[in-house]
Design a protein that fits this description.
Layout lengths: L2 H29 L7 H7 L2 H9 L17 E5 L5 E4 L3 E2 L7 E2 L8 E6 L6 E6 L5 E6 L9 E4 L4 E5 L5
Antiparallel strand pairs: 1-2, 1-9, 3-4, 4-8, 5-6, 6-7, 7-8
Length: about 160
C-alpha cells in the first residue's frame, strides 16, 4: 500500500516535468523557428544593401535608411525571415540617424553578442530566428528600459498596423 502514494507522486512529477518541457519547447518554437539558408539563397532574396547589413554585419550610413525618421504606427520585422521585432510605439528619436527602439516586441526574439570590431566593445543584436545582424544596443535609452536598440533600416521591413491606445 505504501508504494501506491509513491507511484502516484512519481507520476505527478513526470507529468508536471513533461508539461513544463512542452511549454518551453512551444515558446522556443514560437520565438525562433530557426531559419537557415545558404549565402546564395540569401543573395537571391535580399538586395545588396540588405545582404551587406544582415549577413556581413555591415552598417548603412546614418540618416540614409528608410525608417530612421518614420513615425507611422506599425510593426518592424526582420527583412530576412519576417520575425516581428519592434512595435512603432517603442521607437524614439535618438538623434543618431538610425531607427532606435527602447525594447523588442517580446523576450527571446533578439539575441545579443559581444562585438569588438572597429576597435571598440559594443553589444551586437541579431534576429534570434535567422541570425541576421540588426545593429547594436546601448545603455543610453529612455525609460522604462534605459536601452537604445540602434537598428539598421536595411535589416527591417515595416507593416503599417493600427496600434491599440
Amino acid at each position: 500500500m505504501k508504494t501506491l502514494p509513491v507511484i502516484a507522486l512519481s507520476m505527478s512529477l513526470v507529468i508536471t516535468a513533461c508539461a513544463g518541457k512542452e511549454a518551453q519547447m512551444e515558446k522556443d518554437q514560437t520565438m525562433t523557428n530557426k531559419v537557415v539558408k545558404t549565402d546564395t539563397e540569401w543573395k537571391e532574396q535580399l538586395t545588396e544593401m540588405q545582404y551587406y547589413v544582415t549577413r556581413e554585419k555591415g552598417t548603412e550610413r546614418a540618416f540614409t535608411g528608410t525608417y530612421w525618421d518614420s513615425k507611422e504606427p506599425g510593426i518592424y520585422s526582420c527583412v530576412c525571415c519576417g520575425q516581428d521585432l519592434f512595435l512603432s510605439d517603442t521607437k524614439f528619436d535618438a538623434g543618431c540617424g538610425w531607427p532606435s527602439y527602447f525594447k523588442p516586441l517580446k523576450e527571446g526574439i533578439i539575441k545579443e553578442q559581444k562585438d569588438t570590431s572597429l576597435g571598440m566593445v559594443r553589444t551586437e543584436v541579431l534576429c534570434a530566428r535567422c541570425d541576421a545582424h540588426l545593429g547594436h544596443v546601448f545603455p543610453d535609452g529612455p525609460p522604462p528600459t534605459g536601452l537604445r536598440y540602434c537598428i539598421n533600416s536595411a535589416s527591417l521591413k515595416f507593416a503599417p498596423v493600427e496600434l491599440p491606445e
